[in-house]
Amino acid sequence: MGAVGKWHYGGDGGGVLPCAASPPVAPICQKEMIMTLVPLINATMPIPLHALAAILALVIGAAQLWLAKGTARHRQLGYVWVGLMAFVAISGFFIYETRLFGVFSLIHLLSVLVLVTLWRAVRMARAGKIRAHRRAMILLFWLALVLTGLFTFAPGRIMHQVVTGF
């Protein structure tokens, strides 16, 4: 039958079965998990651009954490990262998939917090307050980008559909 966790065709017309199911069990028709960008591409604007900017910010932010600090490259990538994060926050104001307070949700509040923190963190760096700048940027990366990004993979969300195919 194959390894547990893999998918196979039942062979008896029953459809795709998880390998944990054995022949005496009635076939359970399940969709095969296939990653696809179709749900993201077909999403209403600005969701595709918001996701693209967030993914780019994730990659550049990780590089910023790993590469040497205080260099010209760090400053250049930092400005790109700040621009991407600002775009993600601003475009978030136009996404109304999850509504808690009228058309607004906690994500809209997070967007305000991100914009204020970005502005303050850049000001701190320019003022030579590097420890405060570093702390603000690291918190933005891990909390506003990584942690909230993980919530986009919850069932029913577009990124869950992208990863699982359903």
- Terminus-to-terminus distance: 24 Å
Question: What is the typical, i.e. mean, pLDDT?
Answer: 82
Helices and strands, in N-to-C order? EEHHHHHH
Indicate the percent of residues in helices: 55-70%
Count of structural domains: 2
The secondary structure category is: mainly alpha
Described by its quaternary structure, the protein is single chain
Radius of gyration based on Cα positions:
21 Å
Strand order of the largest sheet: 1-2
Percent of residues in beta strands: under 5%
Mass-distribution shape: globular
The main sheet comes to:
2 strands, antiparallel
Strand tally, please? 2
Number of helices: 6
* Unreliable residue stretches: 1-22
Folded structure, characterized:
Helices cover 57% and strands 4% of the residues. The protein is mainly alpha-helical. It has 2 domains: 1-32, no CATH class; 38-164. A two-stranded antiparallel ribbon has the order 1-2. The radius of gyration is 21 Å and the shape is globular.
What's the SSE blueprint?
Elements: E1 7-9, E2 16-18, H1 38-41, H2 47-66, H3 72-92, H4 106-126, H5 130-151, H6 158-164
Antiparallel strand pairs: 1-2
